[in-house]
Amino acid sequence: MTHIRDSARRTIDTKDGYYNLKTGEAKFGQRPFINDDNKSTLNADDVYLDDNIARAEGNAIAVDSVRGTIIIANTIFQNRLNEAILATQKPVMIIKQDNDSIYVAADTLFSAKLSDLFETNVLPPPTAMADTSVAADSSGGANEAMRRDSIVIKNRKDARVISQTFEKDLKASNDSTDRYFEAFHNVRIYSDSMQAVSDSLFYSFRDSTFRLYKDPVVWGKESQITGDTILLHTKNKQPQWMEAFKNGFMVSYLGGNSQAYNQIKSTRIDAFFTDGNIDSVRAKGSPQRIYFLQDSDSAYIGVHYVTADLMLFHFADKQLYKVADISNVKSTIYPMKEKKPTEARLEGFRWLEAKRPKTKYELFE
């Protein structure tokens, strides 16, 4: 075993390879371990160094000890100067916490400093924006992408909104919240209390918010929420507040083989959580709902259709116990003999349980 230590307090432990001290180019094999001043570590089957860019290939693992994250992928690129990381080939990020770590998988993961994202002239012009998965098609392209100062954002409007939210209070670069990550294509999220899928996401350690784009779906227990865009706010890495914008739709499966689903449809749906469970829901923007009425023996006795200007729902012991319909309320109750559960569907109803990650191990497949 060879132990190497450079002037910047980075150490490298390796059994095989070479290091050119003049050019900084190096290759290490047999799972070398690189420790960057105890702030982050990198190891893989093979690691290549070139001008402060590290390329780790084969069962690569990057650990950020400051923020409690781990990235596992077949290929990881790391820029030592600005701490940007690009992971491809089945990457998974683990956001560590005591009892319910969050796992995020996608085709491509990219992480960097928020302060770099919001510096003047950091954002590229619209014509220069591209998906990071394109930059990762070859090691040369990925290396070039990692050297550029510009940060990839899929939607410039989203970048401005995020920038306005954070740029006023960004702290020094050693702040543990000065970090974000993006995931592109086939995004899957798993924790014991919440699961989600989408095409892409942006997560900021500054506000602990997952921004899910393009066909997002979020599940919690027996409930499912969809919308054009979903913002999932977390606190202490637990769901705290969820916003579903445009075509918001919440579905709760009632269990058994009844095919009965309570449903809420609205332009916007806000769901609030306590200890990972839904505490209350607010539906605004032409809200509609279908609710199955049950007797004391839990037998279905009717189907309740309601429209209003605003609907408020409160839960206790994980059960709905209070509903408030406000302004222009229209209500109809149908006996079960007149409305089969399979017929009680609001327009746009989808039950997407087949897409739901069932275990964290699925994200590594």
If you had to describe this structure to a student in words, what would you say it looks like?
- This protein has 365 residues and is mainly beta.
- 8% of the residues lie in helices and 51% in strands.
- It contains four helices and 27 strands.
- The protein has a 27-stranded antiparallel beta sheet that branches.
- The chain is elongated.
- The two termini are 33 Å apart.
- The relative contact order is 0.08.
- CATH architectural category of the largest domain: Sandwich
Query: What value does the average pLDDT take?
Result: 83
Radius of gyration: 24 Å
How many domains in all? 2
The portion of residues forming beta strands comes to over 45%
User: How far is the first residue's CA from the last residue's CA?
Assistant: 33 Å
Sheet having the most strands: 27 strands, antiparallel
Shape: elongated
Low-confidence stretches: 120-138, 147-156
Helix vs. strand class: mainly beta
**Helix proportion:** under 10%
Q: Count of DSSP helices?
A: 4
Q: Return the CATH topology of the largest domain.
A: lipopolysaccharide transport protein A fold
Name the CATH superfamily classification of the largest domain. Lipopolysaccharide (LPS) transport protein A like domain
State the CATH class of the largest domain.
Answer: Mainly Beta
Q: Could you give the count of β-strands?
A: 27
Write the layout of secondary structure elements.
Layout: E1 2-5, E2 10-14, E3 16-19, E4 26-29, E5 33-36, E6 40-43, E7 46-50, E8 53-64, E9 69-79, E10 85-88, E11 92-95, E12 102-105, E13 108-112, H1 114-117, H2 132-135, H3 139-147, H4 156-166, E14 180-190, E15 195-204, E16 209-213, E17 217-220, E18 223-226, E19 229-235, E20 238-253, E21 261-274, E22 277-284, E23 288-294, E24 300-307, E25 310-316, E26 319-326, E27 330-335
Antiparallel strand pairs: 1-2, 2-5, 3-4, 4-7, 5-6, 6-8, 7-8, 8-9, 9-10, 9-11, 10-13, 11-12, 12-14, 13-14, 14-15, 15-16, 15-17, 16-19, 17-18, 18-20, 19-20, 20-21, 21-22, 21-23, 22-25, 23-24, 24-27, 25-26
